[in-house]
């Protein structure tokens, strides 16, 4: 610090690009009682390809068992999951239908296993993991848009970001053996993967 400049109590401090207000030291209380601890502000991690720092998410109930009013058996739910998978629905779509039409808030709470695990047991799991499938679908859609709108530079840039997310996710799935080691994303044949 420069000579003559010091940070007093309650003066702003700079941490990276975030301004923090330093708390004043706690006043000494009665003997034997400790001062309350100061909680530092939380610094949220940013999104991968966007400015957002949101941490919004759904809150699941603390109780991880099926509700008392729920009267369907686990085997019925497993059969429903398999039936929907045979119709070509993806795990998240199956979960939405079970939640909205059949009153199953959490499949795992009833059956003891998540939807994808139930599908793997019966050999009905999709070939591509769902998040990778949707990224490829988005890339195909943006590429189709660029064919008719060649001057759309922003879409071209977004396509690069989407495809880099595809490559990153594919590396992870190859490492965890959920994709074959020779699987490769090719933009020319990507539309056949999501058809």
TrEMBL record:
GO terms for molecular function: small ribosomal subunit rRNA binding; structural constituent of ribosome. Coiled coil: none annotated. One of its GO terms (cellular component) is cytosolic small ribosomal subunit. Keywords: Ribonucleoprotein, Ribosomal protein. Residues 45-104 form the Small ribosomal subunit protein uS15 N-terminal domain. Pfam families: Ribosomal_S13_N (PF08069), Ribosomal_S15 (PF00312). This is Small ribosomal subunit protein uS15 N-terminal domain-containing protein. The keyword Ribonucleoprotein applies. GO terms for biological process: translation. InterPro entries: Ribosomal_uS15, Ribosomal_uS15_arc_euk, Ribosomal_uS15_N, uS15_NS1_RNA-bd_sf. It comes from Cafeteria roenbergensis. Gene3D superfamilies: 4.10.860.130, S15/NS1, RNA-binding. Belongs to the universal ribosomal protein uS15 family.
């Amino acid at each position: 610090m420069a000579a003559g400049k010091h940070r007093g109590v309650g003066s702003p401090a700079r941490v990276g690009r975030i301004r923090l207000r330093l708390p004043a030291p706690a006043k000494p209380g009665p003997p034997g009682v400790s001062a309350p601890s100061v909680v530092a502000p939380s610094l949220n991690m940013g999104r991968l390809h966007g400015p957002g720092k949101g941490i919004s998410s759904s809150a699941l109930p603390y109780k991880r068992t099926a509700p008392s009013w729920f009267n369907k058996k686990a085997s019925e739910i497993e059969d429903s999951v398999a039936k929907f998978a045979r119709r070509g629905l993806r795990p998240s779509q199956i979960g939405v239908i079970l939640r909205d039409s059949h009153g199953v808030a959490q499949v795992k709470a009833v059956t003891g296993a998540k939807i994808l695990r139930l599908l793997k047991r019966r050999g009905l799991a999709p070939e591509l993991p769902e998040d990778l499938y949707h990224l490829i679908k988005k890339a195909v859609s943006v590429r189709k848009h660029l064919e008719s709108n060649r001057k759309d530079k922003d879409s071209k840039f977004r396509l690069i970001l989407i495809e880099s997310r595809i490559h990153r996710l594919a590396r992870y799935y190859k490492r965890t053996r959920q994709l074959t080691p020779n699987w490769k994303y090719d933009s020319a044949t990507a539309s056949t993967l999501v058809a």
